[in-house]
Each structure stands twice: as structure tokens, then as C-alpha cells.
Amino acid sequence: MPEHVFPQVERVVYGKAPLVEVICQVRFPADLRIETTPPADFQQRVRDRFPLLTQQSRAVLSAMPPELAKAFESVIPAASSTVWQFSTEDGSHTLQLHKDNLTLVSRDYRRWEDFYSQFKTPLAALTELYKPAFFTRIGLRYRDIIKRSSLGLAAVKWSDLLKPHILAEIGQDGFEDCTLEATRALLLRLPEHGAKVRLQHGFAEVEGSPEQVYLIDCDFFVDRTEVGHADGALEYFHRDAARYFRWCITERLHQAMGPTPVPV
């Protein structure tokens, strides 16, 4: 197996980033203290960054904004149970503590260092207060929606913005204009950490808009692993997610999003 599945690229920050959400999660064997006892000590550890607290159940999640509810639907178990939700004052970051997982969702992702700093303190609080024996899953998921009109590219064909290996049949002469639906899913084994990545991409729709957009969704994860491996695994996922996204897009799209070097 090659050392890297996706080619290495220079790391950048996009001025017009297409990210709609980033989800970071650790799952662990169920701890009923989280279900039955308000996590007061945990709240004290995280309240500087997440001052707002609500107690919810899975049924209540349906009242959340559709895009955020969808994110949690994919990572929170189906059984109805107590969920402790901590939020930033502006609602851009939401942290949820459940009896068997800790999940952070960002709808205002700027750069990895800022995002992960939001997760490190809750992660440390979880491991110190509840002492999970191991993690049953560590995951990091990025969802990008490329909307051409937002980038001044409304009249540009997808074949000029996405690489041929992503477009596949759509990139063939005459196919793009008559393709109504196209989605693909792929599960890959990665060379490090015993990790995998589920890649999904294709045409999508944004509620309230008739414009055709393109979704690029990558969900990196590793199953049963030691608690101390979380930092290394998440850093690895972050690096590969950036490489995967660049592997999908052309230089024209890359430049249209306003890349700048990551500040040191």
C-alpha cells in the first residue's frame, strides 16, 4: 500500500471556502452516569467556550436547523436518550455529550488549529472525568458544497472545475448537459492508524435554490483504538482530508476560492 493515498499539497486557507460543516466525534463504551446525572463538572471545564447548555433528547433534534440535524442524525445512535448540548454564543459550534459519544459540529470552520482547539478541552474533560477504557470509533468528517454562482463561475462547466477521475461519465462529451443525477460512494482502507475513509460525492440540491451544486463528503474514521491515539488519528485525518479535496478539484476552482497560505 502506498504511503499516501492522496497526493501531498501545500496547505491553504480559502477565502471562499465551500465547507458547510465539519464533524469531529469520539465514541466509547456507554457510561450511564452521563445519562442519569447532569454533567456539572464537565460543564465547568467547557463553559468558557460553550456557555450555552440545553438538555435534549433525540426527538428534540428534529427542531434543529435541517443541515445541523442531518449532521447529528448520521452520528448519534437511534435510541432516544438524554443528550447534553453545549453551544457557543453565536451557535456556530455545537458540542454534544451523549452516554456513548462526544461530538463537535462546526458550521463556521476557518482552520484546523482553531477547530481542534474547540475539541481538545472537551476531549480532555471526557477522558479525565469519565475515563473511557478505549474509543470504539474516532471520526472526522468534512462536507463541502460547491455552488458555482457563489464563486463567480455560474456559466462554467463542471468539467472545468472537477478532475476527470471525479466526473467519470459526466466528463464525456455531451454527458454533462443531460445528466440529472450522479452520486458515488467509496470506502477506502488507509495506510496508517488502521483507518478508513468513506468518500461520497455527486450532484446535490440546496433547499430553496434551483441551482445544481456538487457535494464532496469525506468521513475519516478508525474503529476500536486506545484513548491516547485520538490526537494522532485526528491530525492524520485532517491532513488527508485536505489532500482529498484538492485531488477532486481543478486549478481553476482552487484559484476561484481565493487560497492563501496558512498563517504560521
How is this structure best described in words?
It is a single chain. By secondary structure, the chain is of the alpha+beta class. It has two domains: 18-133, no CATH class; 141-257, no CATH class. Helices cover 26% and strands 31% of the residues. The chain contains seven helices and eleven strands. The strands form two sheets. A nine-stranded antiparallel sheet has the order 3-4-5-6-2-7-10-9-8, with helices on both faces. Helix 2 (40-46) packs antiparallel against helix 4. The longest helix has 19 residues, at 112-130. The chain starts with 11 loop residues before the first strand and ends with a strand. The model has no long low-confidence stretch (mean pLDDT 90).
Short description:
With 264 residues, the protein is α+β, with helices and mostly antiparallel strands. Helix content is 26%, strand content 31%. The strands form 2 sheets. It has a 9-stranded antiparallel β-sheet, sandwiched between helices. Strands 1-11 form a two-stranded antiparallel sheet.
Topology:
Layout: E1 12-14, E2 19-27, H1 32-36, H2 40-46, E3 52-57, H3 66-73, E4 82-87, E5 93-98, E6 101-106, H4 112-130, E7 135-146, H5 164-167, E8 183-189, E9 196-205, E10 212-225, H6 230-248, H7 251-256, E11 259-261
Antiparallel strand pairs: 1-11, 2-6, 2-7, 3-4, 4-5, 5-6, 7-10, 8-9, 9-10
Helix pairs in contact: 2-4
